[in-house]
Amino acid sequence: MPNIRQVSEDCVDILSPSWHGDRVIIKDNGDNLFFNKNNDTITIKTSALLDEDWQAYVLEDSLIVYAAVYNVDTLTFLGINDSVKYLSFNVFDENMIDIEHPLESKQLILSKNYGLVETVSFYHFPYSNTISDYHTYDIAFDQMVIIGMNKPDLGVTNLTKREVFDFQPGDELHITYENSFCTYSNIQDIIYIYLERNDSGDSIYYDVKRTMFQQIFNGEDYNTYFIDDTIQEIIAIDTSFNKLPDQAVSDGSIAYTNFMVNAARPLKSYNLQYAGLIVGESDCWELIFWDGCESTGDYFKGLGGPYYQCTYGTEVKKRRLQYYNIGDDEWGNPIIFTKLENGDASSNINIFPNPVKDDIISIFINNSFDFATC
After folding, report:
1. C-alpha count within 13 angstroms, C-beta hemisphere, residue 130
2. Which of 2, 129, 243, 269 has the maximal Cβ count within 10 Å?
3. pLDDT in tens, 233-255
4. Which DSSP helix (H) or strand (E) runs through 251?
5. CB neighbours of residue 122 within 10 Å
């Protein structure tokens, strides 16, 4: 699975292999062959017995790595219990003299039925005492521990568009929105109530009751609107959103990655570290340096999205979930709209139409407001 990887200070590869290398060969005898960034082979013997060791890796005229099964036990992970093998590494020079090496502080934990529970990056194997790569954003020296799987679904799993926008009739979301900069502002309080759902092909169609109170200031006029209508929301479920974390999403000119957060309610977000990559003059991609709020956001399982909040100087961008009532799950403080009554308006407030109708009204407030200047 290709990953985005920063390979030098000013070069990003959006098709780099992941931690296990660009391929894995599984032999009938239980040997698993991994390949590092130089296409060298690392051999892991999954059928090895306790205290058995073997030559796992050779770098000609440099070093030799031996792996060994140093313990066999049971381990509970992700709520399941399984038999596991613990593997360690010993590193020697070309004369088979034991040398100090960062790899000797690492281990593998191999589950009988579920594969690697704890591992290292085979792409960077066997590391080195002198780093020649650019590792500011890499996981070269990290011990990696399993946090989820999909067969069965346990722990953190890849969140899909269908899971994020999985609403049923009666579900309710209350959202506050703001987009402001200098003397312009657009502020909204919105209530969405889902009325009907229709799954068809690669899309979900919702009929949604929308109640919205909106305030807009354009630098001269300050207008307020109240909208009460029914809209159709179409969710395309087979999209790049469903790609795995760290897998590049690209349209040829920009690229970014998603990442997962194991919160009380699972969420997926954009990887800010790589958001907005642009094509350079070579095969390298380069990072964008943002001036202002970035276009990112969080998507929560069963709650939609994106939700975000950013303040940068006089710029404010936010879309926050203030309240939800999803099935039997209720949270937050609901938005309450004050009922508008027909009648005489103050001399500095104009209402159109008057009397108020059921569709949309405009309220013009003839006051002055102080805003920051740019």
Report:
1. 1
2. 269
3. 999 998 889 998 888 888 777 78
4. none
5. 24
Task: Give the tens place of pLDDT for each residue, 325-342.
Answer: 999 999 999 999 875 544
Indicate the burial class of 355 (C-beta count within 10 angstroms; 0-12, 13-18, 19 or more).
Answer: exposed
Say what the pTM is.
Answer: 0.79
**Nearest to 216, CA basis, from 186, 179, 181:** 186
Q: Do the beta carbons of residue 367 and residue 350 sit within 8 Å?
A: no
From CA 193, how far away is CA 324, in angstroms rounded?
10
Most confident of 104-113, 268-277, 343-352: 104-113
Task: Report d(CA 181, CA 186) in Å as an integer.
Answer: 9
H-helix or E-strand containing 199? Answer: strand 184-200
Residues in Cβ contact with 299 at an 8 Å cutoff, skipping those fewer than 6 apart: 159, 164, 241, 267, 268, 269, 305, 306, 307
Domain boundaries, the chain: 3-155, 158-374
Show the tokens assigned to 262. 């194991």
Residue whose C-alpha is closest to residue 225's, from 276, 171, 187: 187
Local structure of 103: helix, strand or coil: helix
Q: 302: closest CA among 172, 197, 185, 166? A: 166
> In b/e form, how buried is each residue of 181-214, taking b as 16+ CB within 10 angstroms?
bebebebbbbbbbbeebeeeeeebebebeebbbb
Residue 345's pLDDT is 41
Which residue, chain included where needed, has tokens 């040829």? Answer: 252
Where residue 223 falls (left for φ over 0; alpha for ψ -120 to 50; beta otherwise) is beta
Of all residues in the chain, what percent carry a pLDDT higher than 70?
83
Beta bridge partners of 24: 34
